[in-house]
Amino acid sequence: MAKRWLITGCSSGLGHALAARLGAEGEQVVATARRPETLDGLVARYPDNVVAVALDVRDPEQCTAAVERAVDAFGGIDVLVNNAAYGQFGTFEELSDAEIAAQFDTNVFGPWRLTRAVLPVWRGQRSGHAVFVSSVSGTVPFPGLAAYTASKFALEGAAESLAAEAGHLGVKVTILQPGGFATGYSANLMMSENRISDYLPVSEGMLGALQGMNTKAEINSPELFADVVWRLGQMDPPPLRLPVGPDSEAFLEPAYDARRSEYDQVIKAGQHTLT
Question: Any catalytic annotation for residue 152?
Answer without folding.
Answer: yes
